[in-house]
Description:
By secondary structure, the chain is α+β, with helices and mostly antiparallel strands. The protein has three domains: 2-129, Roll (Nuclear Transport Factor 2, Chain: A); 142-241, Nuclear Transport Factor 2, Chain: A (Roll); 248-367, Phosphorylase Kinase, domain 1 (2-Layer Sandwich). Helix content is 16%, strand content 45%. The protein contains six helices and 21 strands. The protein has helices at residues 2-15, 55-64, 152-162, 231-238, 254-261, 360-367, and strands at 23-24, 35-37, 40-42, 45-47, 71-84, 86-97, 105-113, 119-130, 142-143, 168-181, 183-194, 201-210, 216-223, 248-251, 276-282, 286-293, 296-304, 318-324, 327-334, 337-345, 348-359. The strands form three sheets. The chain has an eight-stranded antiparallel sheet with strand order 1-8-7-6-5-4-3-2. A hairpin with a 6-residue loop joins strand 11 (183-194) and strand 12 (201-210). The longest helix has 14 residues, at 2-15. The radius of gyration is 23 Å and the shape is elongated. The N and C termini lie far apart (60 Å).
Amino acid sequence: MKKLLALLMAAVILAGAAGCIKINITPASDDEEVQVETDEILGGWTRADSPVITDETRELLKKALEDLVGAEYTPVAYLGYQIVAGTNHRILCRISPVVPDAKETYAVVTIYEDLSGSAWITDVKDFEVETNLQEETLPGGWFEPETPEITEDAKTVFDQAMETLVGVDYVPVALLEQQVVAGMNYCYLCEATVVYPGAETTYALVYIYEDPEGNVSIQDIVRMTDEESSENDQEADMGNRIGIPNPFVNYETLAEAALAAGFELTAPESISGYDETIIQVMNNEMVQIIFLNGDSRVIVRKAAGSDDISGDYNEYSETQVVDVDGVSVTIKGNDGAVKLATWTDNGYTYAVVSDDAMAIDAMEALVSQVK
């Protein structure tokens, strides 16, 4: 059986060498997506304490590749494991088909290790994006860090770049590449989760540039290919590798947003002290308005149902329920000031989230204008 699987995978790899590598064989568990809650991953998956490739991990991959021909697998980062009747392992690899002018790409490889110690590959999910690494590092070229662990400097750069990105939460798990230019380029492997109840978590490559003055900017975000993505989605992801996997679509007016979502959101046109307004719809299911003042935001959201759509999972020391125009509203904050309000009314769920704490009466006044 193992040799049959190996031959099948080799044939798939060689057939797709001119394009992308895409292998999907029934995995050892039914869990196809990475679901992340801090260090625990739903479906029994646990995030690795360290992404560093150990001798044991190399031996495991070597064992799984024993009868596999047609491609070279280079382990880059250990991502996590799942205890089943044996153990499933996830490893980020660089994969290069053994054909002329082959392109090396990143892929998440799942390996099943049974109780007797035998191991084989059960799934490969490819980013369909070439690595930037060369066999010989050239001056000014991309290079692989000594370790995939996120350094303090790399974490600082990442956190700063993510300050103004909304809609998707990114958690860096490995530092894959760097490039010294007039400043520094970074390539991170991240877990990516849309800020919405029940959203699935997958992997993404995030490219960030830091200039000599310490200013940072996101250059590109590339999501891992999903089998269920449409051809148009895949083409959009491949186009110059540009396109943040953000489910939010911007609209000029709330009326336009209402047509897309199928319901109206009433909210103040502006908030004192906030000079910019962004209107968005997520997956034609949720409308949100973002009021911006520099890095500070007030976000107003509405969707059908009763789930908490705030995306705010911080712990607050103070929680109370207040009455606003006959509706029970839960507000949360610290030291007598609030940052979060959630409520439901007439079949819809609402949330107001503020980066900066505000007085309770100010939050109540804002909530009273949201319908």
